[in-house]
Structures are given as structure tokens and as C-alpha cells.
Design a protein that fits this description.
Order of helices and strands: EEEEEEEEH
CATH topology: SH3 type barrels
Number of helices: 1
CATH architecture: Roll
Keywords: Signal
Structural class: mainly beta
Number of strands: 8
CATH superfamily: SH3 Domains
Largest sheet: 3 strands, antiparallel
Length: 122
């Protein structure tokens, strides 16, 4: 399940990141993904016991054991299920906000519109 909307992910007005310990499989690693769902690409793996910044919490990701919240690490640009985040006050981490960039401006089109059109096209 790849969700392309997250390509435009950015956060606005986020307070300082929370430093959280990664918890997880006794043998193995926790996955940091390109979007908040298990079907998304794994972009990074983290050994349990390591600490990572969680910059914000995305509240509507894939449900993992009854929890749809996923932490976002800005530096690595990836999501970690809150099931894998421990030793920090998760409720104090701000909620992530989506920001979609504006489309590129076509300056030639703007010039033609400002001049009242292009007579050659009529």
C-alpha cells in the first residue's frame, strides 16, 4: 500500500523533537517507512534500544494493534509505528500536518494573460 500523498509531507510550526527509545523485536530491527503503513517502502532500520527524534505524530496511519498513530523522523524522512516508540512522553509530541506545495508558475503563461491574450492563436 503506497500512499503518494506523503511525498508532499512537510510539517509546519513543530516544536522541538522528542528523543525516544526504539523498542521492538528482541532479535531484529524496527522499520522506518516512507509512509505510515506496513506496505510502504522501508527506508531505514533501527536497532531496539537506540534513540531517535520523533518530530511529530501522524494520527491516521495504518492500524497496528489498535493504534493508528505513527511517529515521523524529519532527519531520515520516515515513519515509525508508535508501537515501536518508548521512553518518551508520546502525548506531548505535536501532531503532524500535511502541506502540499503549490504547482510551478508558468511565467510565459502569466505574461500572455497579463497582456490580454495572444492574438497569434486566434
Amino acid at each position: 500500500m503506497q500512499i503518494n500523498l506523503y511525498v508532499f509531507f512537510a510539517f509546519i510550526g513543530i516544536a522541538a523533537a522528542a528523543r525516544c527509545r526504539i523498542v521492538g523485536p528482541e532479535h531484529g530491527r524496527a522499520n522506518c517507512r516512507s509512509c505510515p503503513a506496513r506496505g510502504c517502502d522501508i527506508t531505514n532500520t533501527i536497532r531496539p534500544g537506540r534513540y531517535r527524534n520523533i518530530d511529530c505524530v501522524f494520527p491516521r496511519g495504518e492500524d497496528i494493534r489498535g493504534d493508528r498513530r505513527w511517529g515521523y523522523n524529519k532527519r531520515r524522512e520516515c515513519f515509525i509505528s508508535l508501537q515501536r516508540i518508548g521512553d518518551c512522553r508520546r502525548d506531548d509530541i505535536p501532531e503532524c500536518r500535511l502541506s502540499i506545495p503549490l504547482p510551478a508558475v508558468d511565467h510565459e503563461w502569466n505574461r500572455i494573460v497579463a497582456e490580454g491574450g495572444n492574438d497569434d492563436d486566434e
